[in-house]
Amino acid sequence: MNVKKFHTGYYDANSYLVNGKVLIDTGINTDALIAEIEKNIDIHDLELIILTHCHYDHTAAAEAIAKKSGAKIAIHKNDVEGLHHNEASAAEAFDSRAPSFEPDMLLEEGENIPLGDEEHLEIIHTPGHTPGCICLYEPVSKSLFSGDTVFPQGSIGRTDFIGGNSTKISESIQKLTKLDVRTMYPGHGEPTSENVKRQIELSYRMAKSIFKII
């Protein structure tokens, strides 16, 4: 699997271009992200933009990139309402308004997005940071695009935004501990390939400790 990471602004989430056809998250800095994409592919080859959740720092540039490329936009069905809500999308935190575009695809747990070469992204519903937060797992390369559910070194996503839920994020992270992960591509920070399963287990222990879950 070929993955290109883009981070185009201080407040932006990471964006990942996968196999030259799927973009995971878009950040805020539209022009800079388009320029990075065009350094790597003909932007019209982009087929799908997958949003790991509804927060503005992951979604703001999606509509413009979709219009320029012709790509479809996908998000979990439980985050559509938050996507269009100024506070639930965290747009207000960026002195902006929530996006108004309608996604082309509504994702659900267990769906697979084909990538070619027998690779695919499995949709894993991981609520807790938002109601429709997802992670994406590619089993051939054992890659996990973890959004804002888990981060390297045992860190976890925040649950203090609208729609956040500490019990659900703990359950979601526990689900991720069952995966065989070689490389984690987080929504913020640097990707890691250093004993990733152990790092996710640390995240689960951290969640249980912080939220007093037995």
Q: Can you characterise this structure?
A:
The chain has 214 residues and is α/β, with parallel strands linked by helices. It has a single domain (3-210), classed as Ribonuclease Z/Hydroxyacylglutathione hydrolase-like (Metallo-beta-lactamase, Chain A, 4-Layer Sandwich). The protein contains six helices and 13 strands. It has helices at residues 30-40, 56-59, 62-69, 80-83, 166-176, 196-210; strands spanning 3-6, 15-18, 22-24, 48-50, 72-76, 105-107, 112-116, 119-125, 134-138, 143-147, 150-151, 155-156, 183-186. It has a six-stranded mixed β-sheet with strand order 1-2-3-4-5-6. It has a five-stranded mixed β-sheet with strand order 7-8-9-10-13, with no helix packed on it. A hairpin with an 8-residue loop joins strand 8 (119-125) and strand 9. The chain is globular, with a radius of gyration of 16 Å. The model has no long low-confidence stretch (mean pLDDT 95).
In short:
The protein has 214 residues and is of the alpha/beta class. It is 25% helix and 24% strand. It has one domain: Metallo-beta-lactamase, Chain A (4-Layer Sandwich), CATH 3.60.15.
Poorly predicted runs of 5 or more residues:
none
CATH class: Alpha Beta
Alpha-carbon distance between the two ends: 38 Å
Query: Which outline best applies?
Result: globular
